[in-house]
């Protein structure tokens, strides 16, 4: 089916949504789209956008896209280590987009990597840039669904995906920069840009291809319309209390027991009540560490386990059963992230023990999440702001999670991930799920000092960002110093033979 997407913007929702309601509006604009399309075929000179809408222009044509390989040597302190990724250097392919508008605003985006291979993502971003440079921002955001499709469906590039792996990480970096720029133009933090959008505008950002068997556009619209009810109260609640978080940074796998104890003591003092522990390399080691943490946090605080894909399916059931006495809430990534039916088997086996399965940080697109949901293969869904195709694809997944009634607990263990994903989960609470039950967002206490608008944590909760944008902008001096391999920091580490290049 060849569909012309209705183009819907702020002014449309502001004028007509009031009188006819969004549902009607959806159909009105689809009908209009068809009529206009017919007009085009008949040789009419219809300007679709300007006939349908009375736009307030978002100024600027994208004139440049710069991408940088930025790496932080976190492996030296074992930060971020787990059973599979023993020596991660938290890194990013960092994108800056510039426009010819005279407001001087730039869009900043990133995707998270672990050091080696960042150069490959950088290369993929460059390959995608031809779809971005030369485009008016206005054209992109008023028909975001089409733009998303263009980026993910390049007839040649898609062969190295599609919508997965390096090319999807690159798509995310580019689109994160576009969303940052859009939010800055609107002078709103991204979460607020999203919560202020009408249901129909939000829909117009989502590519529903491949998921309509699980979530139709009408169902998504209904969810978003229902989400408008009580939105103001929820916004007030979040402004006051923040979004609940859990910490992972006390118990990376490479930390010694002493370090673990020290970090856990401090975290408890700071008011943390939910702790994630890395497991999976050695069961006896896992038992010792879990025992230590449980004894420190007491019976009432929550503990989650993360095996980072280390086990086979039956092995996972066996190992987690042996750790069940420590009362973990979930086991995260127990096996291959691609093994949806394996996760379903594990979920079923662990259910009598009261342990759920969590996954998503390596779930590369909405189709996989759809299947996880359809197969009852997860009980906690972990979106990732840089693994999925940016905000656009995350919106699709949040809506599916709502339909399947599965709590979303985002992944944020990486550089910049806390900064980004806080916007998505705050939007989720205010406009989609409307609930905090069984929900929390990951937090790791690393590298925030390199961001211009770092996260603000208060009483173990993410306080909603106030600065315009997606909180993606890094400090210029950090980018210069940590650029790989020529930044000052890497230069010195290489001279001192502290790292292998
Ligand atoms: C290599 C990384 O630090 C991962 O261990 C991390 O993202 C982790 O899986 C998490 O859930 O935070
Ligand atoms: Mg994890």
TrEMBL record:
<dbReference type="Pfam" id="PF13378">
    <property type="entry name" value="MR_MLE_C"/>
</dbReference>
<dbReference type="InterPro" id="IPR013342">
    <property type="entry name" value="Mandelate_racemase_C"/>
</dbReference>
<keyword id="KW-0460">Magnesium</keyword>
<dbReference type="InterPro" id="IPR046945">
    <property type="entry name" value="RHMD-like"/>
</dbReference>
<feature type="domain" description="Mandelate racemase/muconate lactonizing enzyme C-terminal">
    <location>
        <begin position="257"/>
        <end position="353"/>
    </location>
</feature>
<dbReference type="InterPro" id="IPR029017">
    <property type="entry name" value="Enolase-like_N"/>
</dbReference>
<dbReference type="GO" id="GO:0016052">
    <property type="term" value="P:carbohydrate catabolic process"/>
</dbReference>
<keyword id="KW-0456">Lyase</keyword>
<dbReference type="InterPro" id="IPR036849">
    <property type="entry name" value="Enolase-like_C_sf"/>
</dbReference>
<dbReference type="Pfam" id="PF02746">
    <property type="entry name" value="MR_MLE_N"/>
</dbReference>
<dbReference type="GO" id="GO:0050023">
    <property type="term" value="F:L-fuconate dehydratase activity"/>
</dbReference>
<dbReference type="InterPro" id="IPR034610">
    <property type="entry name" value="L-fuconate_dehydratase"/>
</dbReference>
<dbReference type="InterPro" id="IPR013341">
    <property type="entry name" value="Mandelate_racemase_N_dom"/>
</dbReference>
<comment type="similarity">
    <text>Belongs to the mandelate racemase/muconate lactonizing enzyme family. ENOSF1 subfamily.</text>
</comment>
<dbReference type="InterPro" id="IPR029065">
    <property type="entry name" value="Enolase_C-like"/>
</dbReference>
<protein>
    <recommendedName>
        <fullName>Mitochondrial enolase superfamily member 1</fullName>
        <ecNumber>4.2.1.68</ecNumber>
    </recommendedName>
</protein>
<dbReference type="GO" id="GO:0000287">
    <property type="term" value="F:magnesium ion binding"/>
</dbReference>
<keyword id="KW-0479">Metal-binding</keyword>
């Amino acid at each position: 089916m060849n569909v012309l997407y209705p183009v819907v913007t702020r002014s449309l929702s502001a004028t007509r949504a009031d009188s006819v309601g969004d549902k009607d509006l959806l159909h009105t604009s689809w009908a209009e789209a068809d009529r206009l399309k017919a007009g085009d075929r008949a040789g009419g000179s219809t300007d679709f956008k300007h006939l349908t809408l009375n736009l307030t222009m978002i100024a600027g044509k994208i004139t440049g896209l710069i991408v940088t390989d930025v790496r932080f040597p976190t492996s030296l302190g074992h930060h971020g280590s787990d059973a599979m990724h023993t020596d991660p250097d938290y890194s990013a392919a960092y994108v800056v987009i510039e426009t010819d508008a005279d407001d001087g605003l730039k869009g900043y985006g990133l995707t998270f990597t672990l050091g080696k291979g960042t150069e490959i993502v950088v290369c993929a971003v460059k390959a995608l840039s031809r779809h971005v440079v030369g485009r008016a921002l206005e054209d992109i955001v008023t028909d975001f669904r089409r733009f998303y499709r263009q980026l993910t469906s390049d007839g040649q590039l898609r062969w190295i995906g599609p919508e997965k792996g390096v090319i999807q990480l690159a798509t995310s970096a580019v689109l994160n920069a576009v969303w940052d720029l859009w939010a800055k133009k609107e002078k709103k933090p991204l979460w607020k840009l999203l919560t202020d959008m009408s249901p129909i505008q939000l829909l117009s950002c989502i590519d529903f291809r491949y998921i309509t068997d699980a979530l139709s556009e009408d169902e998504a619209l209904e969810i978003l319309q229902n989400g408008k009810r009580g939105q103001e109260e929820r916004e007030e609640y979040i402004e006051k209390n923040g979004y609940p978080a859990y910490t992972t940074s006390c118990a990376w796998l490479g930390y010694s027991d002493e370090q673990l104890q020290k970090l856990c003591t401090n975290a408890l003092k700071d008011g943390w009540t939910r702790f994630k522990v890395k497991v999976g390399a050695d069961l006896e080691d896992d038992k010792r560490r879990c025992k230590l943490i449980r004894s420190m946090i007491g019976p009432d605080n929550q503990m989650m386990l993360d095996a980072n894909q280390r086990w086979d399916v039956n092995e996972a059931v066996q190992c987690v059963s042996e750790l069940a006495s420590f009362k973990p809430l979930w086991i995260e990534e127990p096996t291959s992230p691609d093994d949806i039916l394996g996760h379903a088997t594990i979920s079923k086996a662990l259910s009598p023990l009261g342990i759920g399965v969590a996954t998503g940080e390596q779930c590369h697109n909405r189709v996989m999440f759809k299947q996880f949901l359809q197969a009852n293969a997860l009980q906690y869904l972990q979106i990732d702001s840089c693994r999925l195709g940016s905000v656009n694809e995350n919106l699709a997944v949040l809506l599916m999670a709502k339909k399947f009634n599965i709590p979303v607990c985002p992944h944020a263990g990486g550089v910049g991930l806390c900064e980004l994903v806080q916007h998505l989960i705050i939007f989720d609470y205010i406009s989609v799920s409307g609930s905090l039950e069984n929900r929390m967002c990951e937090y790791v206490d690393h590298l925030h000092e390199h961001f211009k608008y770092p996260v603000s944590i208060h009483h173990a909760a993410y306080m909603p960002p106030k600065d315009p944008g997606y909180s993606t902008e890094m400090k210029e001096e950090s980018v210069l110093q940590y650029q790989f391999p020529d930044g000052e920091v890497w230069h010195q580490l290489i001279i001192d033979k502290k790292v292998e290049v």
